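Standup notes, protein team

Yesterday: finished cleaning the Streptomyces inusitatus set.
Today: Arsenate reductase structure.
Blockers: none.

Input for Arsenate reductase:
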Amino acid sequence: MEIWINPACSKCRGALELLDAEGARYTVRRYLEDVPSEEEIRGVLERLGLEPWEITRTQEPVAKELGLKEWAREPAARERWIAALARHPKLIQRPIITAEDGTAVVARTPEAVRDALGRVP
């Protein structure tokens, strides 16, 4: 299990606390420092079952600079979104947990963290 975090994020800290309380084994990835590649983002999106615009933090200043709210949200625009997430990792919603069964969750709530913990192969 791996969790993508921003240590400054209270949701990330809460997810880590819950994982620790449950005795989970996991790897931390500080994705602002260890920026995921476009290929890694595609893989996580597949595991999440989501599109890139569904994990984009559109209220970030860089999102406003890029005009993301105006970008098309359709298959033809998918790679443009993925490239933006790779170039500007602050846009990636957090925390993201890749579960043991090959899926992933955006773990912004304790319930989502517990859901990830319950996903075993």
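Follow-up from PR in the comments: Strands lie at 2-5, 27-30, 96-98, 104-106.
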